[in-house]
Amino acid sequence: MSKKKxxxxxxxxxxxxxxxxxxxxxxxxxxxxxDNISFDILEGQTLGLVGESGCGKSTTANVLLGxxxxxxxxxxxxxxxxxxFSKTQLxxxxxxxxxxxxxxxxxxxxxxxxxxxxxxxxxxxxxxxxEMQYERVMELLSLVGLSPEHAELYPxxxxxxxxxxxxxxxxxxxxxxxxxxxxxxSALDVSIQAQILNLLIDLQKKFNLTFLIISHDxxxxxxxxxxxxxxxxxxxxxxxxxxxxxxxxxxPYTVALLESVPIxxxxxxxxxxxxxxxxxxxxxxxxxxxxxxxxxxxxECKKTxxxxxxxxxxxxxxxxxx
Amino acid sequence: xxxxxxxxxxxxxxxTSFFTKKGVIKAVDGVSFTVKKGEVIGLVGESGSGKSVTxxxxxxxxxxPAGKIVSGEILFKNENLLNKSExxxxxxxxxxxxxxxxxxxxxxxxxxxxxYQIGETFKYHGKADGSLLTKCINILKKVKVPSPExxxxxxxxxxxxxxxxxxxxxxxxxxxxELLIADEPTTALDVTIQAQILKLMKDLxxxxxxxxxxxxxxxxxxxxxxxxxxxMYGGRIVEKxxxxxxxxxxxxxxxxxxxxxxxxxxxxxxxxxxxxxxxxxxxxxxxxxxxxxxxxxAKKVCSQKYPPEVExxxxxxxxxxxxx
Amino acid sequence: MKENGQDISQAxxxxxxxxxxxxxxxxxxxLGLFFLGVFFFMVIFADLISPYDPFASDxxxxxxxxxxxxxxxxxxxxxxxxxxxxxxxxxxxxxxMSLVVSVGCILIYGTIGIILGLISGFFGGKTxxxxxxxxxIWQSVPGLIVILLLVSVIGASAKTVIISIGITGxxxxxxxxxxxxxSLKERDFVRLARVAGCSNFQIMASHIFPNIINTLLVLSTxxxxxxxxxxxxxxxxxxxxxPPSCDWGLMLAEGRxxxxxxxxLVTFPGIAIAITVIGFNLTGDWLxxxxxxxQMLR
Lengths: 322, 324, 298
Ligand SMILES: Nc1ncnc2c1ncn2[C@@H]1O[C@H](COP(=O)(O)OP(=O)(O)OP(=O)(O)O)[C@@H](O)[C@H]1O
Ligand SMILES: Nc1ncnc2c1ncn2[C@@H]1O[C@H](COP(=O)(O)OP(=O)(O)O)[C@@H](O)[C@H]1O
Ligand code: SF4
Ligand code: SF4
Ligand SMILES: [Mg+2]
Ligand SMILES: [Mg+2]
Hints:
Chain A has 322 residues and is of the alpha/beta class. Chain A has helices at 57-64, 87-93, 114-124, 130-143, 160-172, 190-207, 218-224, 242-247, 252-260, 299-303, and strands at 5-20, 26-42, 46-50, 72-77, 80-81, 97-100, 178-182, 210-214, 227-232, 235-241, 308-312, 315-318.
């Protein structure tokens, strides 16, 4: 593969301490939201992250976005460890990773006009003069399929799909290399989801963007991603090119997850292959975290945690079966 | 035609509007449909198409004071619910007519135990006898909450989203309702939990033989448990079809677009079909077909007159000028 | 599922955010706005509309009753006080003092409250705990003690009133601001502002503050009513504005000695205070209803 790695995450951990006490607090436990995950994203490609609620997808995104400091581990951007960056380097590096979040009703400042919303990142990073910024806003609006009049309106005057377009325009304003999309379609209607999905794919081609997309909708993720990572309780259970993951899932959790996806076809009935619910990330089960729900669990699974292994090129699984 | 005896609910030309400062929102604008005994109906449509308002109208729970049922009839076992007094309705709700809502966390009172909230439904309908606790535990067993004997004394915040939804389904079916309306019961849940809840609903439906109206915007959910699909768009039903016809041979351009625009796992296409344009505005809707601005097959008459409903074959009706 | 009606409408009201159903049943604001209109009219045109210089005394015309009562003259509509100063003119000019004092107080404790509230809500953790404990302690010290202390140090005057109320009142503002800030900072647009590179200060100033202005407006309007009463009380007790200023509280205090035979000396300043306070309260309630009631309900 000739493509360059743009983001590499190595042994990333993010714990949220649970504290007790008033002034002299002491830590009584850790929510292990992300517990030792590693992956790479290649330039111009899309990595999808799926998994049940609370498995650490958004936390991973937040750490990459610099919204939360990692507990440990490395994040490399184009081969450089961002922990080594100076403050000013970090500030200008942040331009390269922008984000779009789930709820377009909440992700736009309610008291700002669309043009202010879209140009804010440019003002913060002092890109261009005011007139140039305005021109750029116009350009961005047409890129995402809105018209110039929309610049003077407030977010509440738009529908959900249009707001998501505004959010995308803003994310593009600094010409980032990477966009992190955390459930960008979940709050949208079915007919609008397809519009936005197509828009994202078009923009990716046009600007050679790299995406990290998080979604609970496996079909959406499969549609847009080159690689898919399946998370369970803070770890990556499996990561593989999307066609391989779908046609030949290895991890028992991936298999179960794929089986539970409802199919829009009355002839294909879904089986419930996963009973029970996700255990608390506060004290995850010992050994393989999935063993209490795993149909194929062995004695070994309860004791030792499986390691990530590459079983075919680009297909990584962490399970004792392999 | 089904015999009159089989019909549990018949909604005739229902119109419900919200009177707001910005104008009259015709949330439901002439909706007619029937639900037979023991049938599971799916009501699909995008948000704002009037699904929830239809169901709230049936329950006579349209938000006051802005909302009002303007006209129409709702015949439940041949009695018009719109002529019933509030106390008669209260007697029906939670008893013969039950409802489950989207967000289990909002629908349960966080300050009362789960058992108390299930018990309430019995008490309220005068069915409280000595063994109330046993009954609550039985309900929890029915909806497969693990260790119901201890869980009955828990508070909702000690439950996960999926478990709360189970409890809500439990309160819904507690009095063996004849009609259960489930408004987006699985939307807030994970796929794995969704599958569990859908299975539970399917099993319970067989057990108590209730009719269910399942409201959702998720086509896949409908395919799993419904036998008929009613498609709503802009406050009206545009297509009524048996579930297989709907998926394999949709007739209305909107239904067709809807099905084509959902990515299907394992069937990757180069580019998804997308219905362009925005959902309709329900204030001062145009006189013609609501879908006209977004429809690729629109004709001249489409923007002038609302298309009549035509029956294409048994149980399959469409409102579109392509067919009349 | 008996009280389901409410739950359902609650659940539903989350769904359609574009609908302004709440604006339907707002009480009409006319009375409150009318009272405030009268008040501000007096403030702005005091020099033009008051028939006399409020400080000019004419002992020969001392304690005249209102014009409609026996012994009153048409020249002094609301009568005169014991020094022969025109009551109407003094009441009109007194409105200015009320405004200066109340706005002064709001400015002081609003500024302190907003800054501390923003810092507390935004940074959270130990900072938050420190500021909140401080405000607890502050609130538990009776305001009157602070005022007495200040009076004894810098003497009684309008300035003292402003400073003392100003530095005692902030905890309430701080709490409200902190609450709003806590919920706003978790909102996605604030997270996106961070992603865009905004500094903490930029986020507070341009994303959080604009969204709490409504709340502050309502709070201030209602608080002004309280301050007017409080400052009148202080003046009445001799701890506030000193003679010969025109101040409604002071006028009450001065008239009190003559209450048995000159009822108008306490009645009219009393009415002026009541009308203004009612005006601010009604307007505040109305503002609360029209400006995003959902936010206020919390
Ligand atoms: N600030 C925080 N403090 C404590 N725990 C947190 C915090 N943020 C997240 N967590 C916990 O970390 C775990 C992972 O959360 P995260 O938001 O990453 O999940 P997710 O995979 O994005 O789920 P969803 O699909 O619901 O968005 C959860 O158990 C969550 O409760
Ligand atoms: N309480 C309300 N006040 C005013 N309008 C409402 C209210 N509830 C719903 N509506 C309007 O009615 C229409 C249909 O809403 P709804 O039935 O909730 O749609 P959905 O199909 O998503 O369930 C929407 O335009 C919505 O804005
Ligand atoms: S390691 Fe064992 S328990 Fe874990 S997924 Fe593999 S087989 Fe199942
Ligand atoms: S009536 Fe006309 S506009 Fe409406 S769906 Fe049919 S063809 Fe399209
Ligand atoms: Mg998340
Ligand atoms: Mg709805």
